[in-house]
Amino acid sequence: MVLTGAEIVIRCLQEEKVEYLFGYPGGAVLHIYDELFKQEKVRHVLVRHEQAAVHAADAYARSTEKVGCALVTSGPGVTNAVTGIATAYMDSIPVVIISGQVPTGAIGQDAFQEVDSVGITRPCVKHNMLIKDVRDIAAAIKKAFHIAATGRPGPVLVDIPKDVTAQKCDFSYPKSVAMRSYNPVIKGHTGQIKKAVQLMLDAKRPMVYAGGGVILSDAADRLTKLVKALGFPITNTLMGLGGFPGTDPQSLGMPGMHGTYEANMSMQYCDVLIAVGARFDDRVIGDPAHFAQVARKIIHIDIDPSSISKRVKVDVPIVGNVGDVLDEMIRQLEATGERPDAEALGTWWKQIDEWRARDCMKYKNSDEIIKPQFVIQKLWEVTKGDAFVTSDVGQHQMWAAQYYKFDKPRRWLNSGGLGTMGVGMPYAMGCQFAHPGSPVACVTGEASIQMCIQELSTCKQYRLPIKIVNLNNRYLGMVRQWQEFFHGNRYSESYMDSLPNFAKLAEAYGHVGLEIDKPGDVEGALREAFKRKTDLVFLDFKIDQTENVYPMVQGGKGLTEMILSSEDL
Amino acid sequence: MRHVISLLLENEAGALSRVSNMFSARGYNIESLTVAPTEDPSMSRMTIVSIGSDDVVEQITKQLNKLVEVVKVVDLSEAAHIERELMLIKVRATGKDREEMKRMADIFRGRIVDVTESTYVMELTGSATKLDSFIEAIDRSLILETVRTGVSGIGRGDRILRI
Ligand SMILES: Cc1ncc(C[n+]2csc(CCOP(=O)(O)OP(=O)(O)O)c2C)c(N)n1
């Protein structure tokens, strides 16, 4: 069947079962938009800024196990999308971005709205390609979806010049992809897994450290089964929250810079550390030299060989898909019929419980002024711990991660790797599209929310009833906290002056806005908001301006060198 | 430590920049890089000489393998291998220097490939150190230009890099 390039693009997206295409039109993609208009299978979502298109596609992927998809025009369309692409890249999220390009003959001529899209995105994509021939479109898009979703997932950009979308050729969608240069390992090495299982059985002070890889490989059920069977303590990273039920007593909470005392102590003083789809990044283990001061055996499961022994030397590397490796571990463990040394494990748990008794997450609540931690606790209660929660970047992000106990995977969406302020609302949008009818809350700050505030308009157009929980401290809170700790209280440019009246702003966009400044009103406001099933409600909580995130490991310090409260300063 | 990394990659537009981009983005060093298509025109062979600790080079190999267009990677310097580089060098060759240059070219098994009244262009192949020592051995002030290709490498005997 002979089709134009633009028709082929849409047919490919249909073949890939793309439900939602987040995008923004422009000259170079007009043929594609014309074809979009003529069909109904792929539903286009018109955002208000291309950054939000990619974030929303990324959130769609994070909250499902599907690939997200975005469409942008050439030049500024692509440059606006770059932040979204880099954000997805850092967190290994499968997204396909289709970008328009100037006509092939104009490439390199400094044409209107020309930018070297493949060049500009190269360092922040898993792969990208420029299509110069209409006959290559179908294979390229098939490849793009395949590469984005397999191995260590990531964004893939397909750049298509305008003339190519007008040319015609015969269309058939490839059934499969075979690439001699790309064959990710799936199953882990059985011998290595055997070694790991033995180490785990012999451990006296075991600790499981689970990251985003568990979520990406949809292995939360297997991880939970294994950890339950072994009775081991577990910590889930910022990217891994929900990979093991946060309310389970075996969960020690999050590790790292703002992790719990017990999680960090256990990471440091265990004798066998089982890292599952986690990458020992600087925000988790702090200074690697300090981490290496204590001897421990490390098992590391990861699909990406380059994540292994990158920052920390490991003893038993296992390259493979987390889910498949855990399956094999469970199988082998059951086959041995052995269980870890109960007595040693008991002593270890006693030690952990002592660390836990420090109660590092306690905070002084107040009747007068709203404490941010209290808002998150109430959010958790009101939503029965079962909402999808997105966040922006800053203190509020850490409080959400600390105080909302995620029991299920893919419920917590945040920019862990790039730390992109502005993701919160677009993430909530992508998530709400993927889960219509489910409660979606966006925990944000008055600074972050302003980075993509224009999306309130998109939310109105598509009637997305997300709940925005704005922890408004009138400061770039996280910046202010660092200035308080490390820069002699010199609050250089971290005060947010001239803030809008957020409740009225939300109303101006046609939404519901609420302003809350008394602790006694927090729960009622949240209940009221979630009762409104069809409205976006912007909850502007005026919170304590001086509150800090604890515990804290200062950048570059050792994992156990924690500031637990203001008394430690 | 100096490492000679050899790779096969798809002969596609952008593949070279993806490799060089990765080196600069991650702060790895490149002493030299050579690339050209193989007997199978759909594939290129690249030799990269880099200096780094074993840990760094392990990361380099892993990161190279991660690039979608890279088919295979080996660290040639892990075992017996051959390295060759080609140098074209233009020297002033007048008076008694003319004879001396010819003599030096012979000692280093070079060939004179262009002759004028006052200059020679010589072609030399060998390991990078051999080319270095040639430059050391002749009078610096007589060198007009040097062009070096960078190192190409291949494993000895049964060490074969192919798909
Ligand atoms: C795009 C971007 N610019 C700058 C930063 C640096 N940064 C990290 S947190 C933060 C302050 C965030 O303030 P707010 O959204 O009000 O959240 P709070 O920390 O007060 O909860 C800043 C500026 C960033 N992460 N992202």
TrEMBL record, chain A:
GO molecular function, one term: magnesium ion binding
Annotated GO CC locations: acetolactate synthase complex
InterPro entries: Acetolactate_synth_lsu (IPR012846), AHAS_TPP (IPR039368), DHS-like_NAD/FAD-binding_dom (IPR029035), THDP-binding (IPR029061), Thiamin_PyroP_enz_cen_dom (IPR012000), Thiamin_PyroP_enz_TPP-bd_dom (IPR012001), TPP_enz (IPR045229), TPP_enzyme_TPP-bd (IPR011766)
Thiamine pyrophosphate enzyme central domain sequence ranges: 193-328
Key word Transferase present: yes
Domain called Thiamine pyrophosphate enzyme TPP-binding: residue spans: 392-539
Pfam families the UniProt entry points to: TPP_enzyme_C, TPP_enzyme_M, TPP_enzyme_N
A biological process term (GO) from this entry: isoleucine biosynthetic process
Cofactors (names): Mg(2+); thiamine diphosphate
Keywords of this entry: Amino-acid biosynthesis, Branched-chain amino acid biosynthesis, FAD, Flavoprotein, Magnesium, Metal-binding, Thiamine pyrophosphate, Transferase
Listed pathway(s): Amino-acid biosynthesis; L-valine biosynthesis; L-valine from pyruvate: step 1/4; Amino-acid biosynthesis; L-isoleucine biosynthesis; L-isoleucine from 2-oxobutanoate: step 1/4
Domain Thiamine pyrophosphate enzyme N-terminal TPP-binding: 4-119
Entry note: cofactor: Binds 1 Mg(2+) ion per subunit.
Protein name, UniProt field: Acetolactate synthase
Organism classification: Bacteria, Pseudomonadati, Pseudomonadota, Betaproteobacteria, Nitrosomonadales
Automatic annotation (TrEMBL), chain B:
Matches recorded under Pfam families: ACT_AHAS_ss, ALS_ss_C
Pathway participation: Amino-acid biosynthesis; L-valine biosynthesis; L-valine from pyruvate: step 1/4; Amino-acid biosynthesis; L-isoleucine biosynthesis; L-isoleucine from 2-oxobutanoate: step 1/4
Superkingdom of the source species: Bacteria
Keyword Transcription appears in the UniProt entry: no
GO biological process, one term: L-valine biosynthetic process
ACT domain boundaries: 4-78
Catalysed reaction equations from the record: 2 pyruvate + H(+) = (2S)-2-acetolactate + CO2
A molecular function (GO) term: acetolactate synthase regulator activity
GO cellular component annotations of the record: cytosol
Job description of the protein: Catalyzes the conversion of 2 pyruvate molecules into acetolactate in the first common step of the biosynthetic pathway of the branched-amino acids such as leucine, isoleucine, and valine.
Assembly and oligomerization: Dimer of large and small chains.
Similarity annotation: Belongs to the acetolactate synthase small subunit family.
Matches recorded under NCBIfam families: acolac_sm (TIGR00119), PRK11895.1 (NF008864)
Protein name: Acetolactate synthase small subunit
Organism: Candidatus Methylophosphatis roskildensis
